[in-house]
Amino acid sequence: MKIRSIIIDDEDKSRDNLRVLLTEYCPSIEIVAEADSAITALKLIKQLEPALLFLDIEMPGGSGFELLQSLPANRNFEVIFVTAYDNYGIAAVKACAIDYILKPIDVMELSAAVDKAIAQIGPDNQRLKELVANMNKPVTENRIAFPLSDKIVFALPEDIIRMEAAGNYTHVYLSGQKKLIVCKTLKEYNDLLINRDFIRTHQSHLINRHKITAWIKTEGGAVAMEDGSQIPVSRQRRDEVLKLLMK
User: Fold this and answer.
1) What whole-number distance in Å separates Cα of residue 47 and Cα of residue 75?
2) Are residues 111 and 9 in the same domain?
3) How far is C-alpha 40 from the geometric centre of its chain's CA atoms?
4) What's the domain count of the chain?
């Protein structure tokens, strides 16, 4: 099955580069059009009804965000941001879109993003609705989005106790004994939360330092969490974790 896609970027070289990479490494992608502005893209989306957009953010005549907000919420396509801007605004929407990729593009990240898009494309695109709705919320709200199979759950960082890697999935443990299984890697959430009092104690564990109840003296060490779990601390991270806990 070919995924009908549109590349939207105001820079000719960026579009050319992305087209070449998609052609070579993502054979399931069919590029049906390219646009150099939000205005042009809007016409093409309505005309061609693509299943996937590769969308830049900063463009003349309207940003990628403004383009999405101008479309009906029931549009059935996925969005992958491709941008040179790595800032808080992008981090805020990252968990709502399929993915975002920073320029220069890493081929492995591009392939992984396309695979996720293919897995999610369907007739009732709840993720896109949540993405558009979330862009209208104040950034200061700081909510994190957790896409599940049938909905997207939002939670504040302070309500997250810990996260545990499970291959391409992440187990998320929230206050109130609530557990989510999310189709995103732990690394993605690590990038979002590592500067918000979260600690990577182990390759497979990311924890909220404010939810720690005790340090357990074992080989390497471990921490007891608010939910009763004991999370291992790798030898390589022991000194770093102890230093952070003493702050």
Assistant:
1) 12
2) yes
3) 26
4) 2
